[in-house]
Amino acid sequence: MSVTDEQIIERLRVLLGESDLQTTTEKMLRKKLEEEFKLDMAEKKAIIRKEIEKYLEEQAANGQDEDEEEEDEEEGDKSAPSRGRACVLSEPLQKFLGEERLPRPQVVKRLWEYIKANNLQDPKDRRKIIVDAKLRTLFTSPLTMFSINTQLTKHVYAPDADEARAKPAKASGEKRVEKPKAEKPKPAKKAKADDGDGGEEKKANNFQKPLRLSEDLASWCGTDSMARSDLTKFFWSYVKEHNLQDPSNKQFVLCDAHLKKLTGESRIQAFAIQKYLSAHIIKD
To answer: What is the pTM of this model?
Structure first.
């Protein structure tokens, strides 16, 4: 059976998307490809390694936009904004942008235009954002390029949520609980979409949930709470900014003083970063 490099790469990327990157190794992926294609992949090690490294870099670069979309989908209620539609903005955000409605990506873009135009990125660490008087009407310190989307959620609503609130008020002078009850079928719909795979849905939601960080981890991140997904993005941003990937094998990271303090290691596998950071998550 003849298999092209393109076919191997295409299947590898599917496997990467399905895998738990905290525990998966290059060897595990190669064995999986060997089983599926029934070929020895020893000669394809370089191609497989290069594609894994490329995938990891893409995850770091594109993770922010993907997480915004996941947050919207996982909310599963009327207040979750749809990325393609104009969202209803909170009163403070309306005053800030001069708009009543905007798609969420446009809101994020306009905020970053303001931040850059006013040089509000910390010159010592550009991941951190200086909260001036105007930003303080929307956000609280500390604010980072990763936590800004979490804080923005309370200022952006789906159009349906606004209409749902307005209709009961117009229909009668009384506030009734019957309308919210009508939304109860939502969870059943979500369960159906899961196709019986409720465990994975819970895992996805937990990955987005803001967590309390230890003093050492909070000092490194610049914030005392962060979702696991944001921690992963912060880690990759830090690694790339400080050139900490091992040049001999970019799946490994050479730990500087900060990372050594957090992991206790001088060299770690990038896939396993969540294992090390878990020790610095404060359980409620």
So the answer is: 0.39
